[in-house]
Structure formats: structure tokens, C-alpha cells
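May I ask for a protein sequence together with how it folds?
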Amino acid sequence: MKTVRDLAALREAVGGARREARRVGFIPTMGALHDGHLSLVRRAKSECGFVVVSIFVNPLQFAAGEDFDRYPRRLEVDAAVLESAGADLLYAPVPANFYPPGFSTSVDVADVSDGGEGAARPGHFRGVATVVAKLFLQVGPDAAYFGRKDLQQTAVIRRMVRDLDFPLRVVIAETVREADGLAMSSRNVYLSGEQRTRAAALSRALFHARDRAAAGQTDPRALEDETRRELEAAGLSVDYVEAIEAGSMARADRASPGIALAAAVRVGKTRLLDNVVLEERKTP
């Protein structure tokens, strides 16, 4: 696996793959990689001939007082695990070059970014859409891979790709979880042992809501309220619990196929996200 730090080297490497008629799969990350990221690499490798992974801690998606400065950075370790997973190219741009002096362009994706994380973290999805759009233009992939854990992020990116006619396929993979159900996240490293134990209540509460929906509870507000109470009883500070349509992020008026229950909680100073689809849509 090769590592490149600048755009010219990136385009030369991707161009070489193109000349060999290899499809390009792309996974944008902020590093601190875990098995969820690596599952995306392996899937991209199975579906595309050439896999690019970016590692860039994007300052535009962090608000003042968030964890930009302490976000885990371990490029050498990440490079080693990416190579073992089958990645072909690691793109780790230098921040000063990626956002040069005078950079003033942003991408806003309205509607799908309004609630949930968009309401809790104003400006966050503007930063996400801007960096992902820029990376798509730099890499030029055939397919880009994301995890379902960040459900609203996937909706924002899908809408951006649709609206701006990016010539690529967006692939959303299932959330990868620890043995106790906790969704894998780079921020899990912040948790103490006691916090890590409490954090597992997040997925348990969401799974319980999915079971209640399967047993006939179709009122999304009831599912939200019951889940919030369960999370608070477990000692978690709840930012929100929302039943939403997984594609549009619109608040659901009934628990039906395609509706997801999404939650954000705080365990100490660490903020964690998770979601479950209450009932998958049936495919013909």
C-alpha cells in the first residue's frame, strides 16, 4: 500500500489504476480506525479493483468546544491495519494544503440536515458535505462506502450526490458492533471502563425499541419516550431520540418499514450515536 500526502500524487496513483481499467472504491475517514472501517475496506476491495482510504480530521465539522484537538490521531498504526485489510492507497492530506489560505467555499445540504445531529451541532453537516464533496472531486471514485451508524450523515451524502450529479455509487454498510452490541466508533477510546459498561445501554435500548415495534407498537412517540426513559435510567445523558424515515430524515408518524430510531447520548464527556431500523423494507 502506498501513502500520499498531496493532490498531485493522489491523482497520479488513481490515474494509474484507471489506466489498468480498475474500478476505484473510496472510504473517507478521520482515522483512529476500527473493524467497522476495515469492513468497508474489505467490501470495497471485493467490489472494486483499487481501494483508496483517506484519513483527514476535518476541522470544518467540529464546533468550538468540541473534541477536534483531542480527536485520536495515529497515522502509522492506521496505515498498517489498512494495508492488512487490502487497501491500495492511503491519502492523508496536509490540512494547510487541503484548506489553503482564503478557502471560502462550503456545501449546504438542506432538509435532511435539519434535525438530529444538524439541530444538535449547527454547522456540522456543512463541514461534512464540504469535505466529502472535495474528496470526491479529488479521488474521483466509482463507489464510496459509509457505515450506517452515522445515519443522518449517509442521508446528507446521498442527497448531495443526487443533487450535484456526482458520478459515483454510494454504498451504505451495516453497523459493526462490539460483542455487547455497542456500535464501533473512534470515540469509544475516550471511555473509561465504567463508562464503557454504561455505554452498552445505548444499543440495548434501541434493540428493545425494535422488539416493541415488532410486537405491534406503531406509535413512534411512544417508542421515543420509552427509549429515552431506558437510557436515562442507565445513567446516560440523552441529547435526542428520534424516529425518522431513514432516507429523508423526516420525523415519522408511524413505525413502519424503513423507519429508524436514532439516538445521541453522552457518557461523561463522550458523545455517542447509534440507530436501528425498526423494520426493514421488503425487497421484491
Observations:
- The first helix runs from residue 7 to 19.
- The mean pLDDT is 96.
- The beta strands are 2-4, 24-29, 50-55, 89-91, 143-147, 169-173, 237-245, 259-267, 270-277.
